[in-house]
Design goal:
Elements: H1 9-34, H2 38-44, H3 55-90, H4 92-109, H5 116-130, H6 133-144, H7 150-179, H8 181-202, H9 213-221, H10 234-237, H11 241-270, H12 284-310, H13 315-330, H14 342-370, H15 376-405, H16 408-428
Length: about 450
């Protein structure tokens, strides 16, 4: 762990961001578990409660589920631009509050839908609001931490994604089985409103907080000078190679993470190669393993890049070396679609998920390390939009690919994308140099 520096108030802020990310992922992940519930599938397909789900019905649901997933990601992509822009202009406290309010309303409203059409609209609204989480969180890290601590702080709050999935896997199957799928959406939606209250009560900028003067001096000493007052327009940001580095890393890697979130429950429930199939009551167990390991990966790879820089490595060398290790760790992923062993499949997917989270933590740190603080949320929003658009493309075809060809093509894609992304990043920016405020694109 990096040196704590004078004072520890900034780590309380990371704890708040961790909580926000956890609840964000609980709200988005609940659908991938309730989709295994037969009453839910029947209602979405407009079938009678006592109807028998045929194989054709199951395949139709999986294809339609892919389109619902694409609707969420399309709105999420648009939301990244809007919410990143709002975070830079309204400030983190107000901009993030708006996003939390929107996603909490959408999550709660999902408990009252009755068709695939209304489910698409509810998930789209959820995506719009949930897009606020990462631009706001990365901007918060840029405001609250010196640069050499960015990747570790990002790795800590980013671990909330895995914590949210773990809690969802542990609780939602039981809640759905006991009280029905509507109770699951209602309960998780309410969590967002509780988060909104906590955020409004406890979050302040460093100058308005209870941080000591020594800690404030420590934070500012490790940051760039105060940014120019005017925000940098998107058209200028798109002229920087550094922006395209972030766009590339998100566009190619984020869809793979979305693939895990959306389709792993179905893979464990109906994957052709697996010798043991899991149902709604047992599918949560491998998720506990996968995302605990993934949490450790987020923290470890965030720490590793920070450790490299503390040893005197340049940001360019530290980030790219860490991301290469992450990319290599994902490559065995495709074997998970061919093995008969449930345990081997869980292990390979856990390793890949851990590596993805390490990749993600370092990508976010690239954004906060290369851009002035008044542009961080906007750049994160642009990159997040690119990642979500990549997710839209994959989601639109994932259901069809899964029905016609199984999981092998999807897992082969998952195992090769990160190395491709790193190669393009190296071509775009052989050296990662920060953008200087006021410099031409």
């Amino acid at each position: 762990m990096p040196a704590a520096g004078p004072g520890r108030y900034r780590w309380r802020i990371v704890a708040l961001l961790f909580m926000a990310t956890t609840i964000n992922y609980i709200d988005r992940q609940v659908l991938s578990f309730t989709m295994l519930d037969e009453p839910f599938r029947k209602e979405m397909l407009d079938l009678a409660p006592d109807a028998v789900l045929t194989e054709a019905d199951q395949n139709r649901f999986k294809i339609e589920y892919g389109y619902v997933d694409a609707a969420f990601k399309f709105a999420y992509a648009a939301g990244f631009l809007v919410m990143g822009w709002l975070a830079d202009r309204l400030g983190t406290r107000r901009g993030f509050s708006l996003g939390i309010l929107i996603w909490s309303l959408a999550g709660t409203a999902t408990a009252f839908i009755g068709s695939l059409g209304s489910l698409k609209w509810a998930r789209a609204l959820l995506g719009l609001g949930e897009a606020a989480n990462f631009p706001s969180s990365i901007k918060t890290v840029a405001e609250w931490f010196p640069k050499h601590e960015h990747s570790f702080a990002s790795g800590l709050f980013n671990a909330g994604a895995n914590a949210g999935i773990i809690l969802t896997a542990a609780g939602i199957p039981w809640l759905t089985a006991q009280y029905g799928w509507r109770a699951s959406f209602l309960a998780t939606g309410i969590l967002g409103f509780l988060l909104l209250i906590l955020w409004r009560v406890f979050y302040q900028t460093p100058e308005q907080s209870g941080a000591s003067q020594a800690e404030l001096d420590y934070i500012r000493a490790g940051q760039d000078p105060a940014p120019q007052a005017a925000a940098i327009p998107w058209r200028k940001l798109l002229g920087y190679r550094q922006t395209w580095v972030f766009i590339t890393g998100k566009f190619l890697a984020d869809p793979i993470w979305w693939l895990y979130l959306s389709w792993l429950p179905d893979f464990f429930n109906s994957g052709e190669s697996l010798g043991q199939k899991l149902d709604l009551k047992t599918v949560g167990i491998p998720f506990l393993v996968i995302y605990i390991v993934s949490d450790l990966g987020s923290i470890f790879f965030g720490w590793l890049a920070t450790r490299f820089m503390e040893r005197g490595w340049s940001m360019n060398r530290a980030r790219k070396t860490t991301m290469l290790l992450c990319a290599l760790a994902v490559t065995p992923m495709y074997f998970a679609s061919t093995t008969h062993s449930l345990y081997l499949a869980v292990g390979l997917i856990a390793l890949a998920a851990a590596a993805h989270q390490g990749w993600s933590a370092n990508m976010y740190s690239i954004a906060s390390g290369l851009f002035p603080r008044n542009a961080v949320a906007s750049v994160t929003g642009i990159g997040g939009m690119a990642g979500a658009l990549g997710g839209v493309i994959l989601a639109a075809y994932a259901g069809v690919i899964r029905v016609q060809f199984g999981y092998l093509p999807l897992f082969v894609l998952a195992g090769s994308t990160y190395l491709l992304a790193l190669g393009i990043i190296q071509l775009l920016a052989p050296k990662l140099t920060p953008v200087q405020p006021g410099s031409p694109a």
